[in-house]
Amino acid sequence: MATAPPPAPCTAEDEEPPSMAPHVPREHREQHGKDAPPGFIPPMAAEDVAAVEAVLGYDFADKSLVELALTHGSFYYPYRPGDTYERLEYLGDGVLTCLMSREVFRTYRTLPPGPLTRLRAANVDTEKLARVAVLRGLHRFLRHKAPQLEGQIHVFIEEMCKYPVHSNGLLDPPKVLSDIVESLIGAIYFDSNFDQEEVWRVFRNLADPLISLETLGKHPVSELFEFCQKTRRGVKIMKDEWDKNLKVEVLIDGELVGSATYAQKKEIAQNRAAKAALDKLKETLGQTESELAPAHVSEPFDELDIPGTLNTNAS
Amino acid sequence: MATAPPPAPCTAEDEEPPSMAPHVPREHREQHGKDAPPGFIPPMAAEDVAAVEAVLGYDFADKSLVELALTHGSFYYPYRPGDTYERLEYLGDGVLTCLMSREVFRTYRTLPPGPLTRLRAANVDTEKLARVAVLRGLHRFLRHKAPQLEGQIHVFIEEMCKYPVHSNGLLDPPKVLSDIVESLIGAIYFDSNFDQEEVWRVFRNLADPLISLETLGKHPVSELFEFCQKTRRGVKIMKDEWDKNLKVEVLIDGELVGSATYAQKKEIAQNRAAKAALDKLKETLGQTESELAPAHVSEPFDELDIPGTLNTNAS
After folding, report:
1. How far apart are CA A6 and CA A57, in angstroms?
2. Rounded Cα gap, residues B93 and B186, in angstroms
3. ipTM of the complex, rounded to two decimals
4. Which residue among B90, B111, B113 sits closest to A117, beta carbon to beta carbon?
5. Which of A15, A203, B12, B160 has its CA 20 to 30 A from that of B251?
């Protein structure tokens, strides 16, 4: 069985980002001839199925599961719920939760549940799985007919290259990308007669490197509050409720230090504003990030919980 | 291996509720003599470990896991994080999520993810697992030193007897009860070298009968809104923000029809008020519950999502 190929380059400025060349599924290339009946939707080509299997390093007994796991709800009109990846995604989500729980439980023998949960989440959240989809090229096999998805995926790939590692809330990955990783994992779980070791072998390769306690970054809002607490600064995160662009501003001791806009999601705007403020503060202080926010194993973890509300004062 | 005993009686008025006689662990009975050094905390007695194993129908290779899975954070002073059930609870939560996902995925071959998720949740939520703990008598082996827990468990057992089946949000079970079911499940997963089939065998027996699509009840708030929509009534759920007792009132076409107070949790008060209103409406209409709210397989399920806010108008 083939193993997963190495991640696409996305770590150095002089390297190329993952290919955005549209993948034309073989079915479209070969079967759009005059012979096909009107409305005929050909199955995924055997060559593409094999390519996906090679990426996964898993040989499906039931090859039709590959097609199912990669078929978005928009692919058929009218909607055919039984022919989309949704049920497999649900199953994959369940088994990944279990296997990542086990992994961090086994790896960190004395770590309390709080950080265990954060480690688990970071390794199976939307951003991590969307990164996996792109780095392994799985997004190229997505079957859909929702034109806006291509643009969203394109933007994500560009942004992803700015953040070679998990951004902790600065990116807004299209859910469809993490969906197809979960659905392919669900498909393997089902196809292997619910063999969790087989699922783990595949996921472990796909998701390599896993996020460890050492590489687990901090959430920018938590880090900002923590930093201001340590250095006795007053911090206020302000949002203009009337602004369509969802502008969020960070005031430190009453002075505007960072801001960001992200019209699609308030939370992303807030996280980016916090990150901008942190970068500014660190630059001003002439301190390096590593000095200010080391990820020590012995740190208390509860403080990393994200404040749920805006306009909070932590001085 | 012993199998799980039948559930304690809690279904008929003339039967006794589950025993509330305090279980004095054998260690306390036998080892509180003058020989014990000051501050000495004896391990769980072998007899009690065996009793728990009999309830679970599982024979632990490492018997110390039983004690660990039943030891609440309050048991040791100062707090000894490595000697409490928290990590096992985390692991058990993960494996139960996976196994219930698989169970409903396999049982309902065409059901969409929404109802699959609701079915999974209902079978592993705090109320379901707390019921399992009480019905199997596992709560009697809980090791803790938090006096308030006894009272909370006592209240829950009394309330539980009023609702022979899952109440869908009318009860407020102490989390400790569901915790110990998860931690015992986590302990079995760990002890069996992560054998999911062994875990499923134990849980399937413990949790019998599982909640099926046919027995899955509706959330009272959803049911109320649905009922009022069907019968073209205006419904308003009102909460007095200044009332310490968290009184919630339900107005139907401007008239007070149901109310409830529950100072500990706003959500429970809201659910109980909705249930009271529904009961009143049905009584008034002379219709039976089964006529009004049958759980048909073919029903749309999205409407069962709970409105997140109070003071909502659905007329």
Report:
1. 12
2. 7
3. 0.79
4. B90
5. B160
Q: What is the distance between the alpha carbons of residues B200 and B123, in angstroms, rounded to a whole number? A: 13
* C-alpha span between B181 and B136 (Å, rounded): 10
Structure confidence by residue, pLDDT tens digits, A68-93:
999 999 999 899 989 999 999 999 99
- Which residues in chain B are closer than 8 Å to A190, comparing Cβ atoms? 105
User: SS in 3 state form for A23-39?
Assistant: CCCHHHHHHCCCCCCCC
Compute the count of residue pairs across chains A and B with CB atoms less than 8 Å apart. 75
The SS3 of residue A185 is helix
- Residues B38 and B36: their CA atoms lie apart, in Å, by 6
Residue-wise pLDDT for A127-181, tens only, equals 999 999 999 999 999 999 999 999 999 999 999 988 888 999 999 999 999 999 9
Which of A196, A186, A184 is closest to A55 using CA atoms? Answer: A184
Residues 6+ apart with CB under 8 A from A24: none
pLDDT greater than 60 at residue B315: no
The candidate with the shortest Cα–Cα distance to B206, out of B173, B234, B233, B178, is B178
Asked whether residue B293 carries a pLDDT value surpassing 70, the answer given is: no
Closest approach of A97 to chain B, Cα-based (Å) = 6
Per DSSP, which regions of chain B are E strands? Answer: 235-239, 247-252, 255-261
Query: Which residue shows structure tokens 């849980």?
Result: B203
| B115 pLDDT above the threshold of 80 | yes
3-state secondary structure of A294: coil
Neighbours of B256 (CB within 10 A): 12
Residue A204 backbone class (left: φ over 0; alpha: ψ -120 to 50; beta: rest): alpha
What percentage of residues in chain B have a pLDDT greater than 90? 65
